[in-house]
Amino acid sequence: MTSGRSPSNGRAPLRVLLSLPDKRVRGGPPSHLYLLHDSLKELGVDVRKFIYGGRTHDESALRKAMGRLLDLARFPFLIAKHRPGIVQFNSAFDRKGVMRDVFFIPVARALGRTVITKFHGSDLKLLATQSALWRLLTWIVVRGSHTVCVLSHQEARAFSQRFPRQRLSVVKNALDFSRYARRDDFRRRYGVPADKPLLLFVARFIPAKGLTEVLQALPIIRRRHDVHVLLVGDGPSRGESQDLCRQLSIEPYVTYTGYIPEDETVGAYLASDILVFPSYHEEGMPMVIWHSLACGLPIITTRIRAAADWLEEGRHGLFVPPRDAEELARVVVKLLDDAELRTQMGRNGPILARQFERSLVAREYLSLYESMSRRESSGTEAETGAVV
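^ thats the sequence. predicted structure below, dont judge the formating
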């Protein structure tokens, strides 16, 4: 296996084949995974990329099936061409992800590669399935990986219970702090009142992200504060949410921006006063929270996975239970009433977010790669549920 050292140490650089989503796919992974790719290169890693998964957010079922078959046919030739020591798959632990990974991971193993699989979200109910077929498929994916990377300790505990001998690492997503220095007149551009407190919601519009609860909370909040809500994103629940706005007579106090590319949303964070994100979606590390921290935005969210690991109640934000619009409204009013608390959170957020700066995260991955290289070189494989 290729040695995991940079050229400055006089040895060949570690060679990694890194799966990346197509940049046309909407959501956070394209943004932070390409940051990781570039940051690893800057550290001297010989990292090559291959596009993994859908090519657009609205691919047809036939195009998906044909595309993945072509990807699988090309995959052995990519390994032969680049000769990586490590192949890192960036996926999700859900039925769609497992159905794809179950073909690629055995190919990488059969060709003698060390495999890392990073899950950017986990359907933990799938770990508890009683279906013999799904238990087999998940076993192939998880145990076929030399290391499984997840984004929260909740996920790590769940995987270690089902696969106690599997090596696990809790990892981070990367932030590029240069993007948060931008300034633009976001409120004016989208017709948002300049003089009102602005509550921000950023997500794909699906029920589990908590958009309905945000809208249901708004009339209660407005009894105390003349606030406006900024909704950044799009998705299947948009029409339903607009109907709810009409039913609640809150249309004048809500602005829909539609979909904005991840790298261009910084203006929304900087223009807002509080992030309101009562999500109960099965994602590992919602990047909207970390962008908000980096921009000094106080946060109201649920105790979801990485948020529960990293956010301190009253220091970076306030927690609310999922699916509870009345409690959400109460906590928003509490934070709007306390300017000093908002200021303190605004100061603490960027300090915490600095731990996710792109070069620091890349070094942590490099350390993981090198430890796996040494382990493979010595002919040993982890058989403990180690969590980093």
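Residues 61-82 form the longest helix (22 residues).
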